[in-house]
Amino acid sequence: MVQNLANSKLKERREKILRRYPPKRDSLLYILHDLQDLNPQNYLTSEDVKAVSEYLGISVGEVESVISFYSMFSRKPRGRYVIRFCSSPTCHLLEGPRVLEELKKLLGIEVGQTTGDGLFTLEMTSCLGACGVAPAMMINDEIYGNLTPFKVKEIIESYRKKGK
Amino acid sequence: MVSLTIDGKPIKTKKGSTILEAALDNGIEIPHLCYHKGLSVAGACRLCLVKIKGRPGMVASCLTEVAEGMEVIAFDEEIDETRRLIVELILSEHKHDCLVCEKNGQCELQDLAYRLGIDRVRFSVEKPNEELDNSSEVILRDPNRCILCGRCVRSCAEIAVQDVLKFANRGSEMFIIAGLNQLLAETDCVFCGACVQACPTGSLTEKLARFQGRSWEFRKVRTTCPYCGVGCQIELNIKDDRIVKVYGVEEGPENKGHLCVKGRFGFDFVHHEDRLTTPLIKRNGEFEEASWDEALDLVATKFSQLKQKYGSDALAGLSSAKCTNEENYLFQKFVRVCFGTNNVDHCARLCHSSTVAGLSRAFGSGAMTNSIREFEKADVILITGSNTTENHPVIGSLLKHVARYKGVKLIVVDPREIELTGYATIWLRQRSGTDVAWINGLMNVIVNEALYDEEFIKSRTENFEEFKKVILKYTPDRVEKITGIPKRKLIEAARMYARAKKASIVFAMGITQHITGTDNVLSLANLAMLCGNVGKEGTGVNPLRGQNNVQGACDLGALPDVYPGYQKVSDPKIREKFERAWRAKLSPKEGLTVVEMMNAASEGRIKVFT
Amino acid sequence: MRLYRSHVLVGMDTFTLLAGARKVKEHLIRQIEKRGLSDEIKVLETGSLGITNRGVVLLIYPEGCYYVNVKPEDVPEIVEEHLLKGRTVQRLLFKGELERKAVALPESPLDVRRQSRVVLQNCGVIDPENIDEYIGRGGYEALERALFQMKPQEVIEQVKRSGLVGRGGAGFPTGLKWEISAKVASEEKYIICNADEGEPGTFKDRVIMEGDPHRVIEGMLLAGYAVGANKGFIYIRGEYALSIQRMEKAIKQAYEYNLLGSNILETNFSFDLEMRKGAGAYVCGEETALIESLEGKRGEPRNKPPYPGTCGLWGKPTVVNNVETLANIPSIIVKGADWFRSLGTKETPGTKLYTILGHVVNQGVIEVETGITLRKIIFDYGGGMKNGREFKAALVGGAAGCFLGKDMLDVKMDYTTLKSYKAVLGSGAVLVMDTSTCIVDMLRCILDFFKRESCGKCVPCRMGTDRLYRLIVDISSGKGTKDHPKLMLELAQMMNKASFCPLGQSVLLPLSSAFKYFEDEVMEHILDKRCPAGVCKMGEK
């Protein structure tokens, strides 16, 4: 019963997002962004894919194809906070790897994994355009720069508190 | 025509061709893997690179249009080295199990590797073995042999227009996905096998043919598919007198290499163990095997006896719309000459008899007025009473294709929501049985808005004034009441059909299988004539017939009321003609139709049924 | 208008906001109010002040001095000492090199007054969220002039004569690009601003959009007018949250002032502008891949020809310009082509934004006339090598760029000159490396980038980037053989000839330039299984 209620609420929210955009092909990326942001696990479900497919009149395979092309989208559940750590030359040159090691130790996971408590997913990303404060990372929509092993510890702690 | 040279050889080719097309047409085999005739060009494999004098670097010949006086270099050391490295890279990841691969001997990758002399493969990478997708009964997917040429993706999108197979991920993580990353059988795949035919390697193969024969062991026979009225051209691959697999013939104008699941995979009935291998005669309530001589003697004797005893009209024969023209001709001649009756009919009675009756009256001939390929030339196609993608899948795919890729507008008129309604510009949803009304409604709008083809009507038709009187009664308001079609949409559809330069009508059982079936057909014929859409390329009235030779069975006279060529049995002069030709006395009485035959048989009036 | 005796500009860009710029601003306003100075001193938000990596940055006029690493607790002191008593707070002043004495009128290398700021003329000076300030500094004057005094063809002529070339990396003459689309007869045409800035080491477009969004809008309007387009899109990468926010606000304001929409400034010219977000694909910075992405598809490049100019978005004539390119247009229209030509080099006149990053004292974005040398960038504006270390190499143009060694320090950095050296300027990113850097390690990072970003459409790039990465990993983990460099060059050369688009074609650049300068270092990894800089973990996968 509760599950049904949750499902129908989700369906409602999904419909609302779809209606925000005209049912044309070029609305696809924006619908996907919004649908993914709606999900606390930061990913797109099969229901999302089917709903988009029907709304835009394109096959599910086509939707999957587009989703899997772009690195910001995920079809697998992720943590509440998606950490995207920059792997590009500037951040790499300015101690990025050292900070990354610290981050991995703090979280206890490897790149591509999610922490057991479902809070954090660690991903590598290409240049974020935050090179002025390299090494940098993004956690969901926030950018963090001038990272040091110490700073990264502070940041994770603050998110852990928030997560409770 | 455009003149150019390729490696010094002068070539003449159509304007708008690509360099690769021009080369292949002239016997210059520029290596390629992702290019496939009939599909859009990807330019992804980069094997077809050539040099053009006056331009820096190399260009893909599949993507470059020819120009007058172009000097192309298709083969030189640098290009050769580039091609070899590309093929080497592809091989470095490919599963090397040619020994058991069905494509061994006709694999395009194999051919290239041999041709380019790739005798060493560097950059080898150990990729984890992906599981085979064995879910479908007829198609086997082996992702390990996939070279990501994209031909299956393009076939699925452009030929079958099903959009099941797509590229997923990017870069070296790329793979081919089916639907929601499912097994093939779980997706919307209709198993037409267009992807299998397009695949250059053994990644997509016919499951039933697995381990059934090596590519060089097959005898190939070209024939027509035994299923529906599209009449796809197929190529049987036969080993030891068994059909192992079927290809679509690329040159076949109806299908251009495309087939549906029935045509491509539905041949297992041919060698089914349940089929008879000898005649059987029932003796003492049990069927016993007999020889042909035995059987034929028995049948001939019995027929003669019964004919003597009960008269010719107690005998009847049912021909087949799945037999050849020759067989149908022979059969109706047999019934007429030997049985002495006109009790011959076949299944067309049950499907398109309305069409034959209607179009014979309107045009003099009960058949499709235009050819299947001409759907590509139409601007508007009106489809009614036909769930084309289900019953004539190859034509259904063609209709989807022209709607999506060629800008052809589809008007679908059907009470059901069928697949084609998703591709339709206008979908009119009428109440069942109200077809004459909506067709007249369309014509009402066309007449009122003077959108009809005056010239055509004047020179090619009769009774326009009488016709107009009736049509004017079918106002959009009235038609809406009768049919349930909103008048706004009716008007829109009418204008779309009438304003098109070339508009075609497609119909099937939804129009014919009514009490008013013949009237329905006549109305459609009127609609076409009203707008001059007869006798021109890309237009016409096109009934989609059921069996693969129902047209032939009709044409060759396997009907109770006409001789071959639709010549009336009741006409003494015509009967005389046939009596002379066949040197026999022929019955002047029209024969029973198949339904009447069944009733007569149950009442005991028919004693022989063959 | 009130006359203030002092202005305090608070740099509000992605980096300073991270450091708490908003809080500092709040404190400033409160303190100033507390001291009863609100009538005399104005606190303003502005875009990037040109100094990154130094916490919250303030610029105080009329002295024109910069305070860096300002914390909220420093505010009372600044207000008391500087604003009230006129004494600069030495400890917070922006210094050049460590030994240099802090001065009130800084000789600091990133001092904006020593740059030729055309594109960045408003950045750090105006409040980017206020259209009136843009207008107050001459904004939309170019649009006015074009609409009322010039024909579209004249606008094109002006841009052509100016010699402006694309600032995104390809360096194609902008006027010519516009002319191609202008010549096509079509009801629908489009202007696309390429704000997908993905080249590693590049964030100049971010600075422009965060600091002066209206300049970009004006550039697009001028392009639209010149070409005959009535619709524009700004394709901006999904990660640039603040830029998106500022541009959206600016667009909204422009609509309110009838500078966008129908009948702009009551002329016949209408132009609608929309923001569109990307979703994480470097390849979408390539114009045809960008168009595919805008159309809602995978960002795979299209074949050229046809070029977007004749057949682009939805098959219509489309002009795709980089943010920086568009930001140059208003000044060209107002000040004229001759003025633009008077700046920089003859072949590629004007100014260029360079991003200085890496082992230098001052990191950030500068705008200077084209033709500046690498030496000046590093040792003058960049403040020299950090910690007094020795210069090893600079990676110019991002990952798809070129390693330049000591011998190139005095070469002019513009598109044509670098091309003649078989190098590229690209986006103008300059990553400076000292001798603690391992080139093999940097190469590994670069090749990892290409492998990750390859779209996968064509065989050479899809497989080539993967194999190149594996080979460099071999080298950096001590498994390299002496065939490795040869194999890598063979692959990269083939990719350069055969790849579908510039991504695959450009991998040869960083690879061959690295091998050219640092062959010994590479061979040491291979033959001696040793990393001279001590970075690569030999024997690890």
TrEMBL record, chain C:
What keywords appear on the UniProt entry? 4Fe-4S, Iron, Iron-sulfur, Metal-binding
In terms of Pfam families, this protein maps to:
Complex1_51K (PF01512), NADH_4Fe-4S (PF10589)
Residues of the NADH-ubiquinone oxidoreductase 51kDa subunit iron-sulphur binding domain: 440-485
Q: Which Gene Ontology molecular function entries are recorded, alphabetically?
A: 4 iron, 4 sulfur cluster binding; FMN binding; metal ion binding; NADH dehydrogenase (ubiquinone) activity
Checking InterPro entries in the record gives: NADH-UbQ_OxRdtase_51kDa_CS, Nuo51_FMN-bd, Nuo51_FMN-bd_sf, Nuop51_4Fe4S-bd, Nuop51_4Fe4S-bd_sf, Thioredoxin-like_sf
Q: Which SUPFAM superfamilies match?
A: Nqo1 FMN-binding domain-like, Nqo1 middle domain-like, Nqo1C-terminal domain-like, Thioredoxin-like
Q: Does the keyword Metal-binding apply?
A: yes
Fetch the CDD domains from UniProt: TRX_Fd_family
Q: Describe the family membership recorded for this protein in Swiss-Prot or TrEMBL.
A: Belongs to the complex I 51 kDa subunit family.
What is the name of the protein in this document? NADH-quinone oxidoreductase subunit NuoF
Taxonomy, top ranks, is: Bacteria, Candidatus Aerophobota
